Amino acid sequence: MNNEKDPLFTLKEDLDKELFDKIEITSQKRLIMSKIHHKHTKKKINWHIFLNIGVTAAVICLLSILGSSYLSNEELTEEDPGEEIKNPEMTDQHSMFIPEDDLKDEINEEKKEIRKKQKPVVEDNINDPAPSSEEEEPEKEEPKPNETTIQVPPFDFSYILQNPAAFTAEASQGILHGTNTIIGESFESIAEKYGDLPFVSGAEGGYKHNLGSDYLLTFDEKGEGILHRVEVKRRINTNLTVEQMVNALGIPYFYHDAMSTNGVYMAYIYGNYQVTMRVEGKVELNQRDTNADLDVVFVDSDAKLTTLQLSRKWLEETLLNKNTEISAGEE
Amino acid sequence: MEDTHKNHLIESLIDEYETPITKLAYFYVRDWPTAQDICQEVFIKVYDVLDHFNHQSSYKTWIYRITINKCKDYRKSAYFRKNTVVDKLHKYFNKEIAATPEQVLLQSEEQTSMSALIFTLPIKYREIILLYYYEELTTQEISELLNINSSTVRTRLGRGRQKLKTMLQRRDKDE
């Protein structure tokens, strides 16, 4: 390529001598290698950082998605009312959730309405004499062909005075003598015995039945069509006094019913049941302090007992006392 | 390619081509530290693209092409242009300052040296002359390296050589 005739054949030697002889050429190999490794380590670190962050984010996303898929019972029940409001007409579907309490209330209301439509309401009046109209009596005496009424023994308060032990024994079993019923039995069985009874609403309301000419029988239903309370009321003026009952059944509890009738009652408790009688006569009440119940401090021994009621025990014995003075009132 | 193999290969390439690459870069940038920096960048680049090397040319040609491209990029940069202008102004004002006879003699010797004459050539002739005479590449290798026709290489080589001969003859007459 380069021969001796070419004046530039010594170019390489000349340039080396002029340019590079004075320069001390040192190797940059170590520096280059360290730069290469540093750069690639950085790349690897970045890759690992992004990988770790990505994996962590993916796990968090997955957990949040899975977590949101499972609602707690409280969260689920919070959403149910909305669904019910949207489709109230779908209550006949078996798969739909219907609150139990609402269903019971609906059934009870429907039953009451049906009974009201079937029978006229009987007015409850203490002073109202026994029905004597010629039009009504034949209807009652003539049994309806579909009704399976049974004969019940005639009721009289005198039975209690004559047979206190037997009355007490029956009462402790939930049976009110002379009514042929037992507390806790179904209303269907009562309907079989007494037919469809008219219903009266109010504090002293219930399903009414004339027990003979002197007494009015009231059945009270409480929950799931079960007999809760049976009451006998003397229609005409009664001669049964507090003293007679105390002599027959012993010292009772006296209490003032401030919640409903505002009357004074005497009560006997027999196991899970209680017998209460309304006292009408001279009584004295006392209030210990502003918010306390009224205590019955005095009852005239000649005060009359107008009603007798047997029910499940709901009185609390610890809140009652037998300190009431029973004596003849001053005329 | 495995990292270990890559490391061995790049180390051997550095051993073989580090000095020629730095010198080649110097011919373009005329500054030794800059040439060394370019040399570093060239080998880092070689390491990065080593997996993509297709072996259609030799490692020497491939690395030389990377070096020349780096040098040309540097010469196009604003930093190089600014420095060149500053250098020219510096030289111009230095001429105006009165110098001693020894300094004038040294300056005249520097200006008439072979390297000074080479650097006065336009870059398109200078790179062909240097690749041909200094790097001892064939015109075919130079055409592949610069991605131009070999006839163009030969033309530029002839013209560059003629220019250099003229300058050498003028220098000899002056001496």
TrEMBL record, chain A:
Residues annotated as transmembrane: 49-71
Biased composition (Basic and acidic residues): 83-92
Domain of life per record: Bacteria
Keywords: Membrane, Transmembrane, Transmembrane helix
Chain positions covered by the region annotation Disordered: 73-98, 112-149
Name the record gives this protein: Uncharacterized protein
Species of provenance: Rossellomorea oryzaecorticis
Automatic annotation (TrEMBL), chain B:
RNA polymerase sigma-70 region domain segment(s): 13-77
Family statement drawn from the similarity comment of this UniProt entry: Belongs to the sigma-70 factor family. ECF subfamily.
Ranges of residues in domain RNA polymerase sigma factor 70 region 4 type: 118-164
Keywords carried by this UniProt record: Sigma factor, Transcription, Transcription regulation
NCBIfam families: sigma70-ECF
Protein's name in the database: Sigma-70 family RNA polymerase sigma factor
Keyword Transcription: yes
Transmembrane helix as UniProt keyword: no
InterPro entries to which the protein is assigned, alphabetical: RNA_pol_sigma-70-like, RNA_pol_sigma-70_dom, RNA_pol_sigma70_r2, RNA_pol_sigma70_r4_t2, RNA_pol_sigma_r2, RNA_pol_sigma_r3/r4-like, WH-like_DNA-bd_sf
